[in-house]
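Weekly modeling sync, notes
Attendees: S.R. (lead), two postdocs, one rotation student

Agenda item 3: backlog of single-chain predictions. S.R. asked that every request posted to the team notebook include the full sequence so nobody has to chase files. The rotation student volunteered to paste the first one in as an example of the format we agreed on. Action items at the bottom.

Example entry:
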Amino acid sequence: MPGSRVTRLRESPWLRAGLLALAVGLAVYGLASRWTQVHADLAKLAGYDVAGAELCVLAGLGCMMLAWRALLADLGSPLPLSAAIRVMFIGQLGKYVPGAVWAVAAQVELARDYEVPRRRSATAGLIAMATTLVVALIVAGVMLPLTSASAARHYWWVLAITPLAVACLYPKVFKFGLDLVLKVAHRPPLEKSVSVGGMARALAWTTLGWLCYGAHAWLLISEFAGHGGRVFALSLGGYALAWSVGFLIIFVPGGIGPREIALIAVLAPVMPAASALVVALASRVVMTAGDLVWAGIALAIGRARGSRLTAAVPADKQPSTVQVPRP
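Predicted structure, as returned to the notebook:
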């Protein structure tokens, strides 16, 4: 069957490795072919701009976590902030595996430690992913036609679905669409829909998160394209479009490759190709570092939680260690 062949290809470790190697190879070739200008452009990236971009990424990721936490609370499973950080950011590492569902699958299992039903955490995860994508499409659809006619021309197919994305923000429409996708995938429907208030809270955090992501791109781009409101709008819309393209191409882990290619295409009219390549690669490094920093914080929270649970158990109830005498 064609469907089964596609599934086998998608799950093939050789295909994953090949796609990743292709993306890395193209990046290396781009660096090598323009090394003189790339080297000069790298020197233009001030340390404080890179540090500021990293802080913006950390803030943006935190906002996305709070959006997911608001959805989960609205569905009936509020989590303490420390638990939400642990579940979200350890599970988020799954996005670097090809296929958009691995992060949600990891979060579902981690949430079981806090007695969150699997279907409920899966529902919150899917809605959070879809909300992030919808807001990104809206941001790109509003900003790019105002700042980059070239990007709007090349990626019209992404921008064309912006009106549909706006309609999907209504909870009942949102649930209908996701249930339809799950039915095609032979999966059970969502447990229930979020309320209008819950969706509004999630959208507020998600929008703030996208503003932070736009600020990170602006700090990197402004060294080459100048400062100002138009450049910020281009940075926000361009990164939202690039992220959406990387997200929709689910065969590539973390959108590596397609996201960078899309961002370079958006920036091409306002800066040289080598400068756009430097910005795209710097953005990837900063975003990956943000994921790792939050994952490190989440792991530290998990160890602290484990230590507290151990300390709460009486000494006579804790497992004893048996000393084996040396011969």
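Discussion: group reviewed the output briefly. Residues 311 and 318 are 9 Å apart (CA to CA).
Action items: rotation student to repeat for the remaining queue; S.R. to check formatting next week.
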